[in-house]
């Protein structure tokens, strides 16, 4: 492996780290919101007013909100990659 190859690999690793870091906080928030919705739904179904109550439907809404956050991160990363393609000469 030549030095150019090593440099290219290091640049690609740095690029992938930048792509993975894009939207990391929103992704974590989406996962936490989904988990909170699942916990709320489990509580409503077992000890609360029931899964078909207003609390249960609210929990499903919270889970949907978490998924919206996760999907927006995926779309945002795709937009980022299309606007900033990997260029080993940069």
Give the key terms.
single chain, 90 residues, 3 helices, 80% helix, mainly alpha
Task: Give your account of this protein's structure.
It is a single chain. The chain has one domain (18-83). 80% of the residues lie in helices and 0% in strands. It contains three helices and no strands. It has helices at 3-21, 24-46, 54-83. Helix 2 packs antiparallel against helix 3.
Task: Compile the SSE list and pairings.
Layout: H1 3-21, H2 24-46, H3 54-83
Helix pairs in contact: 2-3
Distance between the termini: 20 Å
In the predicted model, the low-confidence regions spanning at least 5 consecutive residues are none
**Principal-axes shape call:** rod-shaped
Strand content: under 5%
Mean pLDDT equals 94
> What is the strand tally?
0
Q: What is the domain total for the residues?
A: 1
Q: Number of helix segments?
A: 3
> Helical percent range?
over 70%
Report the structural category.
Answer: mainly alpha
Overview in brief:
With 90 residues, the protein is mainly alpha-helical. It has three helices and no strands. The longest helix is centred in the last third of the chain and has 30 residues.
């Amino acid at each position: 492996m030549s030095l150019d190859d090593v440099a290219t690999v290091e640049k690609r690793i740095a690029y992938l780290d930048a792509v993975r870091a894009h939207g990391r906080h929103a992704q974590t928030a989406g996962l936490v919101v989904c988990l909170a919705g699942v916990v709320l739904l489990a509580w409503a179904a077992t000890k609360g007013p029931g899964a078909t109550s207003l609390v249960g439907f609210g929990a499903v809404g919270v889970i949907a909100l978490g998924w919206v956050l996760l999907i927006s991160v995926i779309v945002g990363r795709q937009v980022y990659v299309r606007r900033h393609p990997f260029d080993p000469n940069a």
